[in-house]
């Protein structure tokens, strides 16, 4: 690697770190970090503000002031090129006198896609594209998935024993995973717009599904309950949280739900169903229209199977604890493949130790979605 390339990577890593700190806080916009460098020294840093505005480039230029003239701007995502609620960032870079830009990845959003870079080049600003692109796309995988697939990125998390159980025979599941593993889950909740569970999880655990990570914020809590099985007194309906709870049921059960669940902090959402079960693909499409970039799917076994069959899971994250439960609830229940070759394949498998647990992560390979519902 050349010295110039190493320098570009060094400052781009700093821009990506700024972006990572804002993941989950900027929806519906991507989280973008920007570092402005002049004479080998950083003169301005910025990241997309919570709520999506101002953008990272604007914040960095504000801090750089006059030092931006003749400098290089390292941007983790292509500068926007369209007039929205704020002026285009590409124009802001030009007006500030930036001499060179280094962009990690092109924005797939149609009004921007390639246009931001084209505007910069037309103004005579040199542009280097693709520095640490894979890392940049990982940071904004939620936004990219929503724009390209018309649904949020789906992350399926399960905590299980070494023999693949998520609960003992009597239903107890606290705590299979370690405190260290649970801390990671709380960070993921901060990074996701919503956390989704099925009615079975609420009946068994009565969870809060809040974010207890330092500096975090609660995701929207989504309960999928086609048959209105959960109690109106479930804890998620009475959380002191800025994030609402959404109860998803069938169109046929919406009227009954309005009579049963009267808490003003609860949104009732009716979705299409077949045979009385919610269509999860349609539900995720609704989430995309709300501007949600990423959804954490926390189970249980039936919901996990339904999400995988519906083709809405992009990555699985399995915390495997060093214990054997024996009889109990399986991690995934109901996929029912009769041939191994028809099963769901994963790629880019990684394994790391988290406290006493192992965390297995893998990307789910695209496949033809089934019509599974919960």
What does this structure look like?
With 374 residues, this protein is α/β, with parallel strands linked by helices. Helices cover 28% and strands 25% of the residues. The protein contains 11 helices and 18 strands. Strands 11-10-9-8-14-6-15-18-17 form a 9-stranded mixed β-sheet. Strands 2-1-3-4-5 form a 5-stranded mixed β-sheet, with helices on both faces. It has a two-stranded antiparallel ribbon with strand order 7-16. Helix 3 packs parallel to helix 4. The longest helix has 18 residues.
Query: Rounded to an integer, what's the Rg over CA atoms?
Result: 22 Å
Spatial sequence of strands, sheet with the most strands: 11-10-9-8-14-6-15-18-17
Q: How would you characterize the largest beta sheet? A: 9 strands, mixed
Instruction: State the low-pLDDT regions, or none.
Output: 369-373
What fraction, in percent, of the residue positions are helical? 25-40%
Strand content: 25-35%
Shape: globular
| Mean pLDDT over all positions | 91
DSSP helical segment count: 11
What is the N-to-C order of secondary-structure elements (H for helix, E for strand)? Answer: HEEHEHEHEHHEEHEHEEHEEEHEHEEEE
Q: Helix/strand/pairing class, anyone?
A: alpha/beta
Number of strands: 18
Distance between the termini: 51 Å
Brief synopsis:
With 374 residues, the protein is α/β, with parallel strands linked by helices.
Keywords:
374 residues; nine-stranded mixed beta sheet; five-stranded mixed beta sheet; alpha/beta
Task: Please give the structural blueprint.
Elements: H1 3-20, E1 33-38, E2 41-47, H2 56-64, E3 72-75, H3 89-95, E4 100-103, H4 115-122, E5 126-129, H5 133-139, H6 141-149, E6 153-161, E7 165-168, H7 179-191, E8 194-198, H8 199-205, E9 220-224, E10 245-250, H9 254-260, E11 266-271, E12 273-274, E13 277-278, H10 280-289, E14 294-297, H11 301-309, E15 315-321, E16 328-330, E17 346-354, E18 357-364
Parallel strand pairs: 3-4, 4-5, 6-14, 6-15, 8-9, 8-14, 9-10, 10-11
Antiparallel strand pairs: 1-2, 1-3, 7-16, 12-13, 15-18, 17-18
Helix pairs in contact: 3-4
């Amino acid at each position: 690697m050349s010295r110039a390339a190493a320098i570009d990577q060094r400052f781009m890593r700093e821009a990506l770190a700024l972006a990572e700190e804002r993941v989950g806080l900027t929806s519906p916009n991507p989280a973008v970090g920007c570092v402005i460098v002049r004479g080998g020294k950083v003169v301005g840093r910025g990241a997309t503000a919570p709520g999506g505005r101002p953008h990272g480039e604007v914040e960095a230029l504000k801090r750089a002031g006059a030092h931006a003239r003749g400098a290089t701007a390292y941007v983790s995502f292509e500068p926007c090129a369209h007039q929205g609620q704020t002026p285009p960032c590409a124009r802001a870079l030009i007006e500030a006198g930036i001499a060179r830009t280094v962009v990690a990845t092109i924005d797939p959003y149609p009004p921007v896609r390639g246009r931001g870079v084209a505007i910069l080049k037309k103004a005579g600003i040199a542009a280097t594209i693709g520095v640490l692109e894979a890392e940049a796309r990982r940071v904004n995988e939620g936004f990219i998935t929503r724009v390209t697939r018309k649904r949020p990125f789906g992350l399926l998390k399960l905590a299980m024993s070494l023999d693949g159980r998520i609960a003992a025979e009597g239903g107890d599941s606290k705590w299979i995973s370690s405190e260290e593993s649970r801390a990671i889950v709380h960070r993921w909740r901060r990074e996701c717009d919503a956390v989704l569970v099925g009615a079975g999880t609420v009946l068994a655990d009565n969870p809060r599904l809040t974010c207890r990570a330092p500096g975090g914020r609660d995701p929207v809590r989504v309960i999928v309950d086609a048959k209105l099985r959960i109690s109106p007194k479930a804890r998620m309906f009475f959380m002191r949280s800025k994030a609402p709870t959404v109860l998803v049921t069938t169109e046929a059960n919406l009227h009954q739900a309005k009579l049963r669940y009267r808490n003003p902090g609860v949104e009732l959402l009716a979705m299409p169903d077949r045979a009385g079960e919610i269509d999860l693909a349609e539900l995720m499409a609704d989430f995309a229209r709300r501007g949600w970039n990423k959804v954490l799917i926390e189970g249980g076994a039936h919901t996990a199977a339904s999400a995988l069959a519906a083709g809405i899971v992009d990555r699985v994250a399995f915390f495997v604890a060093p214990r054997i439960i024996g009889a109990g609830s399986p991690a995934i229940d109901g996929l029912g493949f009769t041939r191994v070759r028809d099963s769901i394949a994963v790629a880019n498998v990684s394994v790391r130790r988290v406290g006493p647990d192992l965390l297995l992560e893998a990307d789910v390979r695209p496949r033809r979605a089934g019509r599974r519902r919960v």
